[in-house]
Amino acid sequence: MFLPQEIIRKKRDKQTLTREEIHFFVQSFATGVIPDYQMAALAMAVVLNGMNDEETASLLTAMINSGERMDWTPLRKQGIPCVDKHSTGGVGDKTSLIILPLLVADGLAVPMVAGRGLGHTGGTVDKLEAIPGFMAQPNSEQFRSWIIARRGAFGAQTDSFVPADKKLYALRDVTATVESISLITASIMSKKLAEDLDALILDVKFGSGAFLQSYGSARELAQSLVNAGKMAGCRVEAALTNMDEPLGRTAGHACEVVECLDILQGAGAQDTRELSLQLAARAAVLGHQDTSIGAHEKAYTRMKKHLESGRAYDVFLKIAEQQGAHLSALERSNKEWIESGTIDVPVLADIQDTQRVESINTRALGLLLIEMGAGRKKKEDAIDHKVGLVNMKKVGETVTKGEPLCLLRLRKHDTHADKLQLDAAAAFLLTDPKKQVSAKPLVADWIK
Ligand code: URA
């Protein structure tokens, strides 16, 4: 029998915890035997003193074992590998809506348990809930039946899926204990490994709109996530991707869904399309275990074909329909769920001539979205799916006097429009149009 305070003391004094101690602590916390204050104390000791690889692995397994695990044996028996993609999050980061149908179109199964918005970053579940009728929080039986029927579905973490993480993450969020590579690794990978995956592609973001801003810490996290996945027998690779400007030209919920539908129909923002293709191609190579020469190029070409032929769009529609979405809402002419009750307000730069966008304070735009009602200040807050940023200028583009840097899609009755416009304009740093400014590469590196 262990004493929780002795385990906390050991970590406080920089000692190594045993597998048994970690399992006892996590299990007792998940079942309510260990109270929040003792878990918070241990989490703080881990933030300050770290965990070695063995301790992190023990924490990860203890979290996975705290609840239900998915089992895709029936699909594997039919030769269908299960894959997923996870992103650490950013502003305008909407690639999941494109990658899932691309991978299903490529013959893979994708049981994607996605998240809600966190801090200044948006979440896939919130975006999908902007679509009228879309059920993004299925219970485990429903989710399983959807995957078996259509090979892909979007879900959200339930109380029985990795409950130790659900409870611990909520606690870390309010006790300043999020920033630990070990805690983040166990949190992210417990959810992904409990999905029973053959392969996983991770999108670890760095830059002003990312949750870990420095390239060094994002790289350290990426390596830790990849190592944890491999130890558990899952084929994992991570992309280190740039979040120094929002992804695409929209940020919000309904407006991001529309941007994804555009991409799935052959138009839309170039950066979002390209990143989706690259991540999907890597996931497909890992999923199909394709070790042939030129596997990545071949997978990329297939993904492009799935987009250009409309196959991925058809898959998205079928999955959306299965999850309750009103398909009529997804027709281009139906703007009711996207725009009704809103007004688009231009954000103008205070300039006399033409200027070039040199950089964008992406975190500031994420925080602005919270002020507009698109994000939560408290966990229980309701969000407004219609408000957002649209027609955003990208880094390197020029802007002339009178031309908007972006449009704020606000509720018609919003009384803060003036202040929001000023804050949005301040997030765009402008420079001489003759200055060469190019957007940073979408993918800085791949970690294997
Ligand atoms: N996302 C998660 O799911 N967990 C973390 O700890 C951080 C980001």
Describe the structure.
By secondary structure, the chain is α/β, with parallel strands linked by helices. It folds into 3 domains: 4-50, Transferase, Pyrimidine Nucleoside Phosphorylase, Chain C (Transferase, Pyrimidine Nucleoside Phosphorylase, Chain A, domain 3, Up-down Bundle); 73-330, 3-Layer(aba) Sandwich (Pyrimidine Nucleoside Phosphorylase, Chain A, domain 2); 337-431, Aldehyde Oxidoreductase, domain 3 (Alpha-Beta Complex). The protein contains 18 helices and 13 strands. The strands form 4 sheets. A 4-stranded mixed beta sheet has the order 1-4-5-13, with helices on both faces. Strand 4 (199-206), helix 11 and strand 5 form a beta-alpha-beta unit. The protein starts with a helix and ends with a strand. Bound molecules: uracil (URA). Uracil binds at residues 169, 178, 183-184, 187-188.
* Count of helix runs: 18
CATH superfamily of the largest domain: Nucleoside phosphorylase/phosphoribosyltransferase catalytic domain
- Quaternary structure state of the chains depicted: single chain
Shape: globular
**CATH fold naming of the largest domain:** Pyrimidine Nucleoside Phosphorylase, Chain A, domain 2
Q: Which ligands accompany this protein?
A: uracil
Beginning-to-end CA distance, first to last residue = 40 Å
The count of domains is 3
Proportion in β-strands: 15-25%
CATH architecture assignment name of the largest domain: 3-Layer(aba) Sandwich
Neighbour order of strands in the largest sheet: 1-4-5-13
